[in-house]
């Protein structure tokens, strides 16, 4: 096999229904000088067999069977240990790439001597119905200072901007120079210990880049998998959010502008976390709300002023700061059920 220009790392766990679809989008890439690294995270279904079957079909495919299940972040780390391409990309095994993804990403990187190239994604919101995301401003070439500003918008938007975030946190939208990852020993944290492990890796990587190209190119096909852990309620996730906040403050060297973005990010994530709680079958919802509102983090978040938020988010924030679990529970219960009812129409 020729030296791979791009290594594509694909963590695999309980994806027997989706893996073939994912792999078809990779082996048919118009850029042939790639390597595909399948990481079987000790999946209990037929995923390991499917991985081996694909490995036997194409010499560009490496299959790594982990001896214990450690989750998505550590599976990606295993893939980085085996990667040999000039650039690295990640693909979740229930999603797909456009067939010219690798060719366009690599040619763009070479043309601009870029450390990283990014694009957009297209989401299947319901069977057969797709919505395309578009970055603001079309194709852009960013220098080192502009990349720093970009990372702030990955964390959260500036105070005067209504959307919570301008750029997605997913590392799957990046084509990254592998030498930067290797030279700085960049690795993922476990999602079992920290919320949004993608955010930490992406910020740490981008802050070491000198040239970035943003393409208005929706190459990543995201299939909305309701069985994904992303959509489930996990009580321990709140601790992971607090850890994430601490690590982000360290990465950004306690910068005041970054701290404001980080606080906005954490508040938004807590709101999403509690929305999942209300929609879940968790047995002790009210007691969990009391636990969240009694946490010391609200003292650190009290200076954050979400005046630009919509009414729902502003009232949510006020109820949290005033430690009103009874009213917060009732408010979220009613608004969540109204929203679900309207969406079902």
Radius of gyration: 21 Å
Global geometry: globular
Count of helix runs = 13
**Class computed from helices, strands and strand pairing:** alpha/beta
Number of DSSP-assigned strands: 10
What percentage of residues falls in helices of 4 or more residues?
A: 40-55%
| Overall residue-averaged pLDDT value | 91
Q: How many strands, what sense, and barrel or not for the largest sheet? A: 10 strands, mixed
How far apart the termini lie comes to 54 Å
Proportion of residues in β-strands: 15-25%
What letter string, H or E per element, gives the SSE order?
Answer: EHEHEHEEHEEEHEHHEHHHHHH
| Low-confidence runs | none
Describe this structure as you would to a colleague.
The structure is a single chain. The protein has 345 residues and is an alpha/beta fold. The chain has helices spanning 19-27, 47-57, 72-82, 101-112, 144-155, 178-183, 197-206, 237-251, 256-279, 285-293, 297-301, 311-321, 325-344; strands spanning 6-12, 34-40, 61-65, 87-90, 96-97, 116-126, 129-132, 140-142, 174-177, 212-223. It is 45% helix and 17% strand. Helix 5 (144-155) runs antiparallel to helix 7, helix 7 packs parallel to helix 8 and helix 9 packs across helix 13 (325-344). It is globular, with a radius of gyration of 21 Å.
């Amino acid at each position: 096999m020729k030296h791979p220009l791009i290594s594509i790392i694909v963590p695999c766990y309980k994806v027997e229904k989706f893996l073939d679809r994912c792999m078809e989008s990779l082996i048919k890439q118009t850029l042939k000088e790639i390597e595909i690294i399948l990481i079987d995270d000790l999946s209990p279904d037929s995923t390991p067999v499917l991985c081996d079957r694909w490995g036997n079909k194409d010499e560009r495919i490496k299959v790594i069977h982990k001896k214990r299940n450690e989750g998505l972040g550590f599976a990606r780390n295993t893939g980085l240990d085996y990667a040999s391409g000039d650039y690295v990309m990640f693909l979740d095994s229930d999603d797909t790439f456009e067939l010219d993804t690798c060719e366009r990403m690599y040619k763009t990187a070479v043309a601009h001597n870029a450390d990283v190239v990014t694009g957009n994604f297209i989401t299947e919101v319901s069977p057969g119905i797709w919505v395309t995301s578009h970055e603001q401003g079309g194709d852009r070439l960013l220098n080192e200072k502009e990349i720093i500003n970009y990372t702030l918008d990955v964390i959260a938007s500036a105070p005067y901007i209504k959307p919570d975030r301008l750029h997605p946190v997913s590392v799957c939208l990046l084509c990254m120079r592998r030498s930067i990852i290797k030279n700085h020993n960049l690795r993922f944290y476990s999602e079992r210990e920290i919320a949004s492990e993608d955010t930490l890796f992406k910020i740490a990587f981008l802050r070491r880049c000198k040239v970035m190209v943003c393409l208005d190119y929706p190459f990543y096909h995201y299939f909305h998998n309701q069985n994904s852990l992303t959509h489930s309620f996990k009580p321990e996730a709140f601790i992971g959010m607090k850890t994430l906040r601490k690590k982000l403050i360290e990465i950004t060297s306690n910068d005041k502008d970054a701290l404001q973005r980080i606080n906005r990010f954490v508040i938004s994530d807590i709101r999403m976390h509690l929305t999942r709680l209300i929609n879940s079958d968790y047995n002790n919802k009210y007691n969990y709300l009391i636990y969240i509102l009694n946490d010391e983090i609200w003292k650190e978040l009290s200076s954050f002023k979400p005046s630009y938020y919509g009414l729902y988010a502003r009232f949510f924030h006020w109820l949290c700061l005033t430690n009103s679990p009874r009213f917060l529970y009732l408010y979220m219960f009613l608004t969540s059920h109204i929203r679900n009812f309207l969406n079902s129409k």
